[in-house]
Amino acid sequence: FRSSSRILSIFQYLKMLFYSFFKSLVGKEIIVELKSDLCIKGTLHSVDQYLNIKLKDITVVDAERFPHMISVQNCFIRGSVVRYVQLPASEVNVQLLQDSSRVEARELKKK
């Protein structure tokens, strides 16, 4: 049980780390690629603890392949259907992410 609870706590930490990071990107333009191969570019409006994403002012990267999405302006994306999220490089503070990961890893080792 101890090993499975530790894995669970690591998973929960990573989820919260991503959640906090995505919250800092609200108002920035991102591209979300879904497991269905649909890529949606838009302004991040909100994200929740389940990594569900709300985008506004969206455009579909491959509109010819997904013509039914052309008229959509805003969308809600369930976190479980997301394959990748492309972020603006200028918004990613790699040093801060690495430092946060190291601190949390040390804390988890103590438990």
- Computed over alpha carbons, the radius of gyration is 16 Å
The H-and-E topology, N to C, reads as HEEEEEH
> How confident is the prediction overall: mean pLDDT?
85
Number of strands: 5
The helix tally amounts to 2
Helix content: 25-40%
Between the first and last Cα atoms, what is the distance in angstroms?
14 Å
SS-derived structural category = alpha+beta
Q: Show unreliable segments.
A: none
**Largest sheet, if any?**
5 strands, antiparallel
**Approximately how much beta-strand content do the residues carry?**
25-35%
Q: Which overall shape is indicated by the principal axes computed on the Cα atoms?
A: elongated
Please tell me about this protein's structure.
It is a single chain. The protein is of the alpha+beta class and 111 residues long. 35% of the residues lie in helices and 28% in strands. The protein contains 2 helices and 5 strands, in the order αβββββα. A 5-stranded antiparallel β-sheet has the order 4-3-2-1-5. Strand 1 (29-34) and strand 2 form a beta hairpin. Helix 1 (2-23) packs antiparallel against helix 2 (94-110). The longest helix is centred in the N-terminal third of the chain and has 22 residues, at 2-23.
